[in-house]
Amino acid sequence: MDLTDTEAEAAFRAEARAWLEANKPVEPLPSGNTAEGFAINRDWERRLFDGRWAVVSWPAEYGGRDASLFEWLIFEDEYYRAGLPQRVAQNGIFLLAPTVFEFATPQQRDRILPRMAAVEDVWAQGWSEPNAGSDLAGISSRAVRDDERGGWRLTGQKTWTSRGAFCTHLFGLFRTDPEAERHRGMTYFLLPLDAHGVTVRPVDVLDGDAAFAEVFLDDVFVPDADVLGEANRGWEVAMATTGSERGLSLRSPGRFSAEAERLVALYRRRGDGGDPTLRDAVVRAWIDTEAYRLNTLQTVTRLADGGRVGPESSLNKVFWSEMDVA
After folding, report:
1. Which element (helix H / strand E) includes 193?
2. From CA 250, how far away is CA 114, in angstroms rounded?
3. What is the reported pTM?
4. DSSP characters over 209-225
5. Selected catalytic residue, list 9, 15, 245, 259
6. Domain residue spans in the chain?
7. What CATH number does the domain located at 7-117 have?
8. 65-103: per-residue pLDDT in tens?
9. Known catalytic residue: 245?
């Protein structure tokens, strides 16, 4: 595993760094957990798309640059080194999109991906329910077949939907065969959050921001064209999405490494006042981010060689969860 940029990668890095420096907002972007902040972040991400930096690893026909996985990581490194925030459109771009590439029909890809890349559609996850949090197989929200209209009618409730009050669309599982085993009889649906019968209620957190939402569905019609994968085989599709969630952590080393670099620089300027505990904490933070980065590069090397995300992605998820809290 070579940790140095190739000549082409170095040129890509220089181009990304120059564009970000010339185009990034002058002031730090606000939290995306308010309506105003979400809109401001969305405008910034549209600028990324206009510069063809929103989805660098996607095919050019969908707004990307056909960049390699290593070039994608390089862009993420430069993005966070520029002090830019996590993206409000990331659930669609980094979770749903890989699932669309794998399971969607050509017509679905042509309809969904360009609007996602341009931040015209911003996607929220529809997994958790009041009685099914981490137990995804325990969902009770249901979809009933409507042969007359060629689709399904969805009823139920989704909870803890990140930024659901501001997103335009939802992806998630609904039970289509209540007689099937727990991990069967579910279907993966895509739907607009302004559809008739959908009610979205913001859930304010301690800082007053609407970071989450509840989504209520009352006999919401969804056409067959908005089913991803096969009916009653949604579990397989959902596992691809959750695998992408592990893969989402591949882009996080750039974020945490940039934060660790700033922490080390601050420590060097101010010192520890003779407190070895503070010094140890700073060193530990740097070591953890380096371990995360190297583990990520190992995974990306495997993917670039035609392999799949392996069990080390679970370790990345642990790294991400612990460092995100820290």
Report:
1. none
2. 23
3. 0.87
4. ---EEEEEEEEEEEEGG
5. 245
6. 7-117, 123-232, 241-325
7. 1.10.540.10
8. 999 988 998 999 999 999 999 999 999 999 999 999 999
9. yes
